[in-house]
Amino acid sequence: MAEEYDLVVLGGGTGGYVAAIRASKLGLKVAIVEKQELGGTCLHRGCIPSKALLRSAEVFRQTKEAEDYGVTTNEPTLNFTKVQERKQSIVDTLHKGVQGLMKKGKIDVIEGFGRILGPSIFSPTAGTISVEMNNGEENEMIVPKNVLIATGSSPKSLPGLKVDGDLVMTSDEALNMKELPSSIIIVGGGVIGIEWASMLADFGIKVTVLEYLPHILPTEDQDISKEMLKQMKKKGVEIVTDAKVLSETLQKDNGVAIQAEVDGETVTYEAERMLVSVGRAANINNIGLENTDIEVENGFIQTNANYQTKESHIYAIGDVIGGMQLAHVASHEGIIAVEHMANNHPHPMNSDQVPTCIYSNPEVASVGLTEQQAKKQGYEVKVGKFPFQAIGKALVFGETDGFVKIIANKENDDLLGVHMIGPHVTDMISEAGLAKVLDATPWEIAESIHPHPTLSEAIGEAAMAVDGNQIHG
Ligand code: FAD
C-alpha cells in the first residue's frame, strides 16, 4: 500500500525545505523527496559555500592592506586547504541544522529521485510519485494530495565549451577546487561571474571576464554596472564586454585557450583554468512532466501567481520556474504555494519588492526598478545619489567606493527603485525593501532617523538628495 501524504515536495533545496516546514506548521502531513542533500544548491553549491570563500578572500585582501590601518603584519600567505575546510564546516553545520528542522517538523525525508507517474485511483489530481531510492531498495510509491515541484536548476554551458570539471569548470566544480590556479578566464559577467572574479582577484589570481553583452551585470542599473566595471579594473580584473566566444576550448600545455570576437577581431585568451557562468537551466528532465498537462516554456515550468501548474494540485516554485533565481525568492514562493494549498489567501509576490544582492567586493544590492526600466515604463523620474566617500563610517572602515541611488516618480514621489554599491550594502537593502512594501516615499525614508556613524546614513542622504536636500554633499 502506497504511503499517503497531504504534500510531497520534490527537491529539498531552499524552496522545498522551507515550504515543507511551513506546510507542517499548517498541520499538513509532509514528505520531501531529495536525491542528493537537503539544502540543495544554495547550501551545498551556491550561496553559502561561495560566500564562505568570498569571506576568506576578503580577509586575505584586508590583511595585505593592514598597514593602512597602522597594523604591521608579515606578508600573508594563503592556505587554501584551510579555506576549503572552513567553507565545508560552515556548510556541514547548516546542513545538520536543516536535518534537525525536518525532524522537529516531523517531515519525512525520502532519499531518492522522485518522478510523477500520473493520476492514481487515490489521488487522481496530484497523482502518484515513484521514488528511485538512493539505497538501491525497491522504488517507493507515494500518493500525495498535493505535489510541490522544487527541483531547482543546474549550470548551463555554451555549445563549444565542454565542461570537464577540471580545466573547464562551472561554479559546481570551482567551489571544490583543491588549489587555486594562477590565472582564469570567466565566461559570463553576470552575478555569479562577477562574484567569482572579485573573489579570485582578491586571492591574487589573474582574472579575465568575457561578457557577451555591452555591460557586465546587465540586469542592474547602468550606474551600478559602470561602477562595478571601474572597481573590477581597480582590482586588476580584465573585463572584455561585447565578446562573442567563438571557438571550442583548446587544451594547452599549461591550461586552456579560447577565441572570442571582440570589435570585429578574433582574439585568443589563455589561462590555467576556465569558469563558465552563463546561466542555469531548470531541472525538469525525467521528473515525469510528460505524464501531466504541466506547461513548460523556454525550459521553465509555468505557473499562476499561487504557483499552481496546469495541474491544479501540482505546484512548482524556485529556480525550476525561472524568473529571479534566488534562494529567498524560492523560499517565499514555497510559502505562498503551501498557504494556498491550505486554503489560506496568501499575498502574491511582487517582484518589484524583492531585493537582489551580489556579494562581490564591493557589494551590490537593489530593489525595484532601475532608472532605465523606470523611464522605459514611462515614468518621469527624479534621482537622489549619495557617495560613501562622504559617509564617516565608510571612511572608518576604509571602504569609501560606491554610492546609494534612489529613484522616485516625479509626479507623486512614489519610490520606484533603490540601488546600492559599496560596503555591506547587502545588509542594508532590507530597509529599502521594507520601504517598497510600505509604499514609503523618499521623504518618509529620510524622516526615519539613520544613526550616526553608520553606513545607512547614505540611504537617508540619498533619500534627501532626491529633492536636492542632502546635508553632506
Ligand atoms: P535548489 O536549491 O537547486 O534545490 C533543488 C533540490 O532538488 C536539489 O537539492 C536537488 O538535488 C533536488 N532534486 C532535483 N531533482 C530531483 C528529483 N527528481 N527528485 C528529488 N530531488 C531532486 N541565491 C541567493 O539568494 N543568494 C546568493 O548569494 C546566491 N548565490 C549563489 C551562488 C552560486 C554559485 C549559485 C550557483 C547560486 C546562487 N544563488 C544565490 C541561487 C540559489 O542557490 C538558488 O536560487 C536556490 O538554491 C534555488 O532554490 P530551489 O529550492 O529552487 O532549488
UniProtKB/TrEMBL annotation:
UniProt domain FAD/NAD(P)-binding: residue ranges: 5-334
One GO MF term attached to the UniProt entry: dihydrolipoyl dehydrogenase (NADH) activity
Keywords: Cytoplasm, Disulfide bond, FAD, Flavoprotein, NAD, Oxidoreductase, Redox-active center
Gene designation: lpdA
Subcellular localization(s) per the UniProt record: Cytoplasm
Protein name: Dihydrolipoyl dehydrogenase
Taxonomy, superkingdom: Bacteria
First-level EC class: oxidoreductase
Lineage, opening ranks: Bacteria, Bacillati, Bacillota, Bacilli, Bacillales
This enzyme's EC code(s): 1.8.1.4
Cofactor(s), names only, from the UniProt record: FAD
Originating species: Halobacillus shinanisalinarum
SUPFAM superfamilies cross-referenced by the UniProt entry: FAD/NAD(P)-binding domain, FAD/NAD-linked reductases, dimerisation (C-terminal) domain
Catalytic activity: N(6)-[(R)-dihydrolipoyl]-L-lysyl-[protein] + NAD(+) = N(6)-[(R)-lipoyl]-L-lysyl-[protein] + NADH + H(+)
Comment on bound cofactor: Binds 1 FAD per subunit.
Similarity section: Belongs to the class-I pyridine nucleotide-disulfide oxidoreductase family.
PANTHER family registered for this protein in UniProt: DIHYDROLIPOYL DEHYDROGENASE (PTHR22912:SF217), DISULFIDE OXIDOREDUCTASE (PTHR22912)
Keyword Phosphoprotein applies: no
Note in the entry: The active site is a redox-active disulfide bond.
Pfam families: Pyr_redox_2, Pyr_redox_dim
Residues that span the membrane, as ranges: none
Domain Pyridine nucleotide-disulphide oxidoreductase dimerisation: 354-463
Keyword Disulfide bond on entry: yes
